[in-house]
Each structure stands twice: as structure tokens, then as C-alpha cells.
Amino acid sequence: MLFISACRPAALPHKTFLVMGTVFTVTLPADRADYLEPAGVLSANALYGMENRLSFYQADSDIARLNQAAGAAPAAVSPETLTILRAARRYGELSGGAFDITVAPLLQIWGLRGGPPPANPPAPDEREPIRRLVNFRRLKIGDRTARLELPGMQLDLGGIAKGFAVDEVARILQRHGLTNVLLNLGGNLRALGAAAPAAPWRIAVQDPFDSGRVLGALDLRDGEAAATSGNYERFVAIGGRRYAHILDPRTGRPAEGMASVTVIGAGPDAAMDADALSTTLFVLGLEAGAGWLQTNCPGGAVLFVPDRRPLELHATPAFATRFTPSPECAGLLRRLP
Ligand code: ADP
Ligand code: MG
């Protein structure tokens, strides 16, 4: 989702295409337009390859084969898929189950997997047996194979695969000698180098209540990533109410309370960490999320926007020092401890 976008992207050389169910954009410094063609081709090859292996929807992807074999034999999967599954298990453990890549059966009953939405929110007695299928610990990961232990279990990497893919494209472009580039896969961004000497890549954080408005700007340093999870671009309407596409595995209901959560990531898995963490914190919400950060991720850079009016921005100290609010948002920024 494009909650975040490069400021003035039209001013810089960039290439855009659709992949993994969203929009991908690679942006280069003004004097590097000659690299655009190769950067686009390298990115596309890598992203379409990953989509073929990781997509929930493609019938012969690693994920589809694992899902088809749920409750039966282990399925052979690529080393890359195993890497993501291990990372997802780590995020699952770290989040106490708020992040869970086996959440798909719940998405299904809430009409968040395509098809017509249910007439009414699924009742507790309908949700409960489905909720029991959601448990990342019942995904067994071997050296070359993986297996879902219960029939009916389903994997869905929607909360992590785009971040992983951005890290992978960054590694590939770097290997080919690109030092300055900004990647954006559906709101999962990663920067390498800078837009120009002494001009870091500057990105805009969108207002979750008005996609035409910007909450503020953020400079991404070399190697850093940013990801946003939000409730307004993908949702289902049931009985006149909107439900977000992020499920709370603990209740079996769509997560409520947040309009958007933006996370800055750093390190070798910057974009994947930011992707998984934004989804996790969207589930945990402001109070529990802020507490979780202090224990598990002190110094983490996160912006929470609660799903209530008037607009409130809650930033951790590490986020606040990096963030330049737009004039109309400056007075709304609150610092978390
Ligand atoms: P988006 O994919 O829209 O950019 P996110 O990164 O927050 O937003 O991922 C949301 C996706 O993650 C959902 O569409 C779904 O595929 C998956 N998902 C939903 N709830 C969870 C959860 N609790 N843990 C892990 N993945 C989830
Ligand atoms: Mg995410």
C-alpha cells in the first residue's frame, strides 16, 4: 500500500510496474537516468520470480503447495521460502502470536480473501474452530521441506513477503554496483545511498484518513527501510462497517484501534523487519504496542496513528527526532516514552 511515497517522485527518474498484487517503483538520482533500464529489469526479474514462489494465489507456488498439503506430507520448498518461514516464526514468537503467517483461514471467513463478504460478522462459534487452525507453531520447518500439521491450515506471507522482496532487490542492485536507489513495493520502502550528495532520500508519510494529505516527511539513511500498515486501502465492509485486512489471531477478529502504523527499519533485513513489525504493532495497538516496543525493541522508530478523530500522532523518541511534521500536523505530534 502506498501510505508512503517518495516526495516529488515525478522529478526523479523512476520506473513503475505491478507485481505481488501492488505497485513497485524504483527511483534513481537525477543524474542516473541511464541506470533506470537495467535497474528495472533486474528488479522485475527478481520480483516476478519471488511472486511465483511466494504467492498465496499462484497454484504452483511454494506457499500454494504447502497449503494443498496441509495435514499431509511435507512439501519441498526453495531455500528462500525456508528463510522467510524461519523469519516469520521468529516474529511470531517475538510478538506472542500477534504476528502469525497462518492467519489466512480467518481472513477467509471475514471475506478478506476475495469473493463476496459475509452478510454478518462471523459469530464466535463460527470463528472459534477456524481460530484454532491459526497457529504458526504448527508449521514445521525442515532443512528442505516444510509442513502444516493440521488439515485446513493455510499460510499467507502478505505481512512479510513484500518487505523480504525489497531487501532482496536491494541486495541484487547493490551487487550490480548501484549505490543510490530508492525502492518502494506497496508502501515497503528501502533506501540505498542518497538522492544526491548531502540530500538523503526523503519520503512522505500519508494521512491514513486522507490519502491526498501528508502527515510529514522522513529522511531515510543509507540502508534504512520504512513500512506502513493501514486500515483504509484494503478492507471489507460488513453491515455498513469497515474491517481492516489485518487479523488479530488471538481474537479471530480484524484488528481495531489503529488507522496506520509506520516503522523505520535498519540492518540487513531492514525492510522485512519493518514490514513484519508494522503488521505486529497494528494488531497490538497503541498502548500494548508501545509497551511491547519498550521491552522488545527499545529505540525502535515507530509512528502510531489511532483510528479516531481528531487526528493524533504518537511517535517513539527515535521516530520523532527523524520526522518533520507538515505544518498542520506539528501540534498533533505526541512523544511516547
Ligand atoms: P499490506 O500488505 O497491505 O501492505 P501489511 O504489511 O500490514 O499490509 O500486511 C497485511 C497482510 O498480512 C494481510 O493482507 C494478510 O495477508 C497478512 N496478515 C493479516 N493479519 C496478519 C497477522 N496478524 N499476522 C501476519 N500476517 C497477517
Ligand atoms: Mg507489514
Explain this structure.
It is a single chain. This protein is α+β, with helices and mostly antiparallel strands. Helices cover 30% and strands 28% of the residues. A nine-stranded mixed sheet has the order 2-3-7-8-11-16-17-18-20. Strand 2 and strand 3 form a beta hairpin. It is globular, with a radius of gyration of 19 Å. The two termini are 29 Å apart. Adenosine-5'-diphosphate binds next to helix 7.
Topology:
Elements (H helix, E strand, L loop, with lengths): L3 E3 L7 E6 L2 E6 L8 H19 L7 H7 L6 E2 L2 H16 L9 H6 L14 H8 L7 E3 L3 E4 L12 H15 L5 E5 L2 E5 L8 E7 L2 E11 L4 E6 L4 E4 L2 E4 L2 E2 L4 E2 L3 E8 L4 H27 L4 E6 L6 E3 L1 H4 L2 E3 L7 E3 L2
Parallel strand pairs: 18-20
Antiparallel strand pairs: 1-9, 2-3, 3-7, 4-6, 5-6, 7-8, 8-11, 9-10, 10-19, 11-16, 12-13, 14-15, 16-17, 17-18
Magnesium ion binds next to strand 11 and helix 7.
